[in-house]
Write a structure and sequence with these properties.
Elements: H1 17-29, H2 31-46, H3 49-61
Length: 66
C-alpha cells in the first residue's frame, strides 16, 4: 500500500470471497497501481538479491565486511 502497488490490507477476521474479490477488482481497475507495480518489478529485477541477502545477514550478525 505504501508503494502504491496494492489496495489496503484486509484484516484477517474480515477475509472472505467478497472482500478478496473486491481487492482484486481494485487492482485490475487501477491503471496507476498497475504502472507502479510494473516499475517496482523492473527495480526488483535489477537488484542483486543474493548480495543483498548476504549483506542483510551480515548486518544482522554485526559482521559487516568492507
Amino acid at each position: 500500500m505504501r508503494l502504491g502497488v496494492s489496495p489496503a490490507p484486509i484484516p484477517y477476521k474480515k477475509i472472505s470471497e467478497k472482500t478478496l474479490a473486491q481487492a482484486i477488482k481494485v487492482v485490475l481497475g487501477d491503471e496507476v497501481m498497475q504502472k507502479k507495480a510494473q516499475e517496482l518489478g523492473k527495480k526488483i529485477k535489477r537488484e542483486d538479491s543474493v548480495a543483498n541477502a548476504v549483506e542483510a545477514f551480515h548486518r544482522h550478525l554485526g559482521i559487516i565486511f568492507t
